[in-house]
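Appendix B, Record 12. Input sequence as logged:
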Amino acid sequence: MTSEVYARKWRPSVFADLVGQEHITSVLQNALTTNRLGHAYIFCGPRGTGKTTTARILAKAANCLALSDGDPCNSCTICISANSNTLLDIIELDAASNRGIDEIREIRDKVNFAAIEGKYKIYIIDEAHMLTDQASNAFLKTLEEPPPHVIFILCTTEAHRILPTILSRCQRHDFRRLQNQDMINQLPSIASKENFSIDSEALKTISRQSFGSLRDAENLLEQIVISYGNDITNDHVTDMLGLITTETPLNILSALLAKQTTQCLSLINEASWEGFEPKRIHKATLDLLRAAMLIEWGVVGNLDLPETTINQITASINKIPSHNIGQTLKIWSNIVISSDSAQL
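Logged structural output:
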């Protein structure tokens, strides 16, 4: 029997537990408490930022029998059924695999039937941009004038692929990539519930490598726990991801800023022979160059780097003229752009 993955097992069940999307959850909670729900919503944004989860919480809250400050109670019969995916009034459609006109016609034929258990019948259409043009056009009339007991929630990562006529009929909410600190704050709760430990540097690395997607961070965390056990360190994370250690990019940075071309090429070649992709070497060095520019300008507070690394960068830039940093950053950025096919 397979176990449930972290991203599903610890999926938020109330708006209060959603991370990094307060600009959306506050609006939805206010709509629920004032009984001013719209008839159609579209949730847009990068993957793993909580679109489908928010849609499910909204659908559950709209039918909840004991709503509290815009959050579902999770204890009434409606909430219990919704949490177990057995509530007949919440219908989910994956438009990636059910994208044709026949599926939309089926919705159109059934939409006038009253809700069975709750107040609203709610359709959640995931990957809505995958609907065919014919299906989208057939959906327009129903979306514009649905029965009062029906709410549509469309979720998409590519809003630009959805017909403008559909977009204009929906209340649009744009989900943002999560900040690294949001994920750093969230992941320890999973560690506590799953009875494993993880150090702070490992959390920072996972967050940086997830690029604003909490689901990616949770999946990566689970993969590392499966591979390395219940005591996770930053070395485990860098080993799993094949990340280059900070020492090599720092040495390359020092050589670049000092215009020691031979030393720089030697360091890159050595890292390549150790199995690191040139693109990763270039990207890691570029990140440090950007940090060097910010340090030169006195903007240190927002840097997501250990203090020792910041001190090493500061020592390097104190040895060279300030204009060297900008010139080097410009040249190195062009190298990174063209490094997909680079072989050193």
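Residues 6-174 form a domain with the Rossmann fold fold (CATH 3.40.50.300).
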